[in-house]
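Structural prep section.
Before we set up the soaks we want a predicted structure of the protein with zinc ion in place, mainly to decide which crystallisation condition to try first. Input record follows.
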Amino acid sequence: MSDNIGLSLDELRENLEKECIQPSYHRLKILEYLQAHRTHPTVDIIYKNLSKEIPTLSKTTVYNTLKLFVSKGIVQELTIEEKEVRYDADTTQHAHFKCTECGGVYDVALESTIVELGTVTEEGHKVIDCQVYLKGICKDCLKSAQN
Ligand SMILES: [Zn+2]
Ligand SMILES: [Zn+2]
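Run finished without errors. Recording the tokens verbatim:
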């Protein structure tokens, strides 16, 4: 898993320009939020937290910005549950573990890459995305169940 927490706004701006994305203030702040919060937030959570700091931000802007980031491959979209799309600035291959008790979504390291994106399978299908979802009880909930 890559660990790029703590990129400066200048570095984030460069990342966006590399992908030919106009680095507007809203886009930079949304990317910064995702880099800093590895909790796999939804549009609602990002909007709720950022709009306190940026009153001009709309939920539509958050939604459209995330769609743009996903299409450029700088953010990945997770759909562990239907109707609950979450976003992750870590685009390396890792599994996601959803806790059925607290609802938290945690990163789980994979021993190795399952499949390289772009690979054509034996059956002739081309892989463009790979998501691994696990469900269970997270370590914190396990601990509090013991107490
Ligand atoms: Zn939990
Ligand atoms: Zn993740």
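Observations: The first strand starts at residue 76 and ends at 81.
Flagged for discussion at group meeting.
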